[in-house]
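Ligand: nicotinamide-adenine-dinucleotide. Inputs:
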Amino acid sequence: MPDAITRIGFVGLGNMGWPMAHLLDPHYTLTVHDARADVAESFAGEHRASATTDLAGLAAASEAVITMLPNGDIVREVALGDGGLAAGFANGSVLLDMSSSAPLGTRQLAEDLRPHGVAVVDAPVSGGVAGARGGSLAIMVGGDPDEIDRCRPVLEHLGRVIYEMGGSGTGHAMKALNNYCSAAALSSACEALIVGDRMGLEPAKMVDVLNASSGRSAATQGKIAEEILSRDFSAGFTISLMAKDVGIAGGLAEGLEMEAPILARTRDLWKDAAELLGDAAGVTEIVKLWEEWNGGELGSGSG
Ligand code: NAD
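Predicted complex:
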């Protein structure tokens, strides 16, 4: 059995990665890296961690490297690109990819890192920035059971519940399917509200009724009033990342040669939204599609 993890490399200090690394900092010797070197330096300035621009050096200094990056292609580049993690990893290291990556790419990465003596565990998360700050994420894990056990103490600092899904890529598959459900619920709630608004129903009251009824979802319970009706839109999770996740779920269904029409429509809707509203738009800004199509802000009665 490999040694317990005491030294962690953390790559990707964005909306999610920063608060996650913050929770690990008191418990591990942490080396951090981000493509924005100033962000890694600021993190190191506020924590015990050291910052580096040298990925191979970060891997050499760590038993486990956590990646919290936009997508699996970037994780692959960070791991196997020139001067990447693979150039520094010691035999017996583990790459813990907590990004929402595509599951088949994760399997391939695990195969490609095996000859380097490196195991890959996929451990994507749900719960958003608030869950990352509070250490209350839901974590869905795929990979070799012994490697998952080795990573478990690390994950327990970050998550409220840890679900072991199966072999390599199964955590990433579960995450994509979860986000498809989340995206479909948010977009269908926006559509229902804008139709109700035109009918003369009051949006805040509709949210109350949905939340007391069978139409409720994480969207109606935490996003519509808080971010859409308030026009705050501070999701901390972008439309483009959600479009990527729904695209991964759609690609999975296609790869398995399945009929999944709602998934296909949801994927198209979110892809269009990402193109129209831009990379920086938060997920709840999707309501602006219906507002644009129907000529008025939700709550104006013209929806
Ligand atoms: P983010 O865009 O805020 O952060 C990504 C970070 O990665 C940035 O700091 C960026 O500079 C860095 N980065 C990009 N390319 C890099 C590279 N080649 N090398 C090193 N660093 C690089 O994204 P986020 O919201 O923190 O999301 C990270 C992952 O977590 C994504 O896969 C996302 O789908 C997933 N996720 C996000 C949320 C959320 O609510 N934000 C929730 C669950 C899962």
